[in-house]
Design a protein that fits this description.
alpha+beta, Tick-borne Encephalitis virus Glycoprotein, domain 1, five-stranded mixed sheet
Length: 161
């Protein structure tokens, strides 16, 4: 009887351990390639594929650069159907994290200019677009925003987009 209880407990533990491992794998962020545009919704996270290589040339889980989208902190873009004195702007909050290090929080602006790009860990992250565009009389829910970004290595040049 005691052996049956012990075996049952071991089987239950093994089952839970196996499901915990499979949950970790399913929680792994989507992978993106340098120089390719990608999209994020609030709360989503991606990981750069070039940052996955370990020192021995093998992939190391969670070792690379990750990017997350926290949300839109301000949106004053002129709504479609309105006449505005200026086009307005929107500010989004993103974070970058290398390995298990701290998250580096950055704000990017949707309006054309240097504030569209943030730098961290030898990478440049550029905001290409923010959707949806405001429409007069229709508020945008926080979870409806979608960023389109591009990640690359190194310093920025004014002609690259």
């Amino acid at each position: 009887m005691k052996l049956a209880v012990t075996l049952s407990a071991l089987l239950a533990f093994a089952s839970l351990a196996g499901s915990a491992c499979s949950m970790d794998k399913s929680a792994r962020p989507a992978q993106i390639e340098l120089g390719q545009s990608f999209s994020l919704r609030p709360g989503e996270v991606v990981q750069a594929t070039d940052a996955l290589e370990g020192s021995a040339g093998t992939a190391t889980e969670w070792a690379g650069l990750r990017i997350g989208f926290e949300g839109v902190s301000a949106d004053s873009r002129c709504p479609k159907g309105e006449q505005c004195m200026w086009a307005g702007d929107a500010t989004v909050r993103v974070w970058l994290q290398q390995g298990t290090g701290p998250k580096e929080l950055r704000e990017l602006n949707a309006a054309e200019g240097p504030a569209q790009t943030a730098y961290a860990y030898g990478y440049a992250l550029r905001l290409l677009s923010l959707a949806p565009y405001p429409v007069s009389g229709k508020p945008i829910a926080a979870g409806d925003y979608v960023l389109t970004l591009k990640l690359r290595r190194g310093e920025s040049t004014s002609t690259e987009r």
